[in-house]
Amino acid sequence: ATGFDTISLDKFDEYYYNQSKDVITSLEMERLMNAAGPTGGKVVRLSNGEHPKDIVFIQCVGSRDVTCRGKSYCSKICCMYTAKHAMLTREKYPDTDVYVFYIDVRSPGKNYDEFYRRAVEEYGVHYIKGMVGKVVPEGGKLKVQASDLLDNRQLHIDADMVVLAAAIEPDKSARSIATMLTASMDTNDFFTEAHPKLRPVESPTAGVFLSGTCQG
User: Fold this and answer.
1) CB proximity list for 57: less than 8 A, separation 6 or greater
2) Does residue 162 carry a pLDDT above 90?
3) pLDDT tens-digit profile of 165-196?
């Protein structure tokens, strides 16, 4: 059970993550919404403490990325936790407009697609198929430049907060643990199972079992 890290966003300067306090990762959003978090569960802009009226979620930041910046694989969990964050935000702050930019929604688990559809149909979250090209701070706002592939148009949204679903990667300790246990790994440093259907949580090495994101 080696856990995971989120990838470094140093190579994704177009989203202004390292320069603006109002551009955060989904993991930081989770912490912000937690009652035991730094704001007592209140969603506020970290730059000025005000409640954001427009929030933009950007999916697949570093995931499904064929360039050398990110990871070629899908991180699998991002679509669902973004839907959760979007619904919780809309439930707690109905006056907030929430936008989600995505490549395509991947919700393969039991009742997952129904969960995502609730975000759209019951909570009024704006799901837009397209990618964000740039985030530019201007006049106290974050100007989000993006494309809507279904309507074939360019969008400019004045956001108060931008949330990045950063790709996940194996913990740095995973490779050394695999060497110590002579366990098998794939090219992305995830542990491989003995058989995907018949022995899905066993390593090919006898007595070694796989838990959680050490596997993918």
Assistant:
1) 26, 82, 85, 86, 98, 99, 100, 101, 162, 163, 165
2) yes
3) 999 999 999 999 999 999 999 999 999 999 99
- Write down the residue that tokens 């007592």 correspond to: 40
- And the tokens for 64? 């499904």
* Token pair recorded at residue 47: 């730059």
Whole-number Å distance between alpha carbons of 92 and 82: 15
Q: Percent helix, strand and coil across the chain, each rounded to 5?
A: 20, 30, 50
Residue type for position 171: D
Side chain identity at residue 28, one-letter code: E
62-69, Cβ contacts within 8 angstroms, sequence gap of 24 or more = 62/7, 62/9, 62/12, 62/166, 62/167, 63/165, 63/167, 64/103, 65/167, 69/11, 69/12
Find the DSSP H helices in 71-158: 78-92, 112-121
* CA–CA dist 213, 92 (Å, integer): 30
CA angle (43, 164, 15) in 5-degree steps: 110
* The Cα angle at residue 22 between residues 156 and 99, in degrees rounded to 5: 40
Contact 94, 51 (CB under 8 A): no
List, for residues 59-83, the tens digit of each pLDDT value: 999 999 988 899 999 999 999 999 9
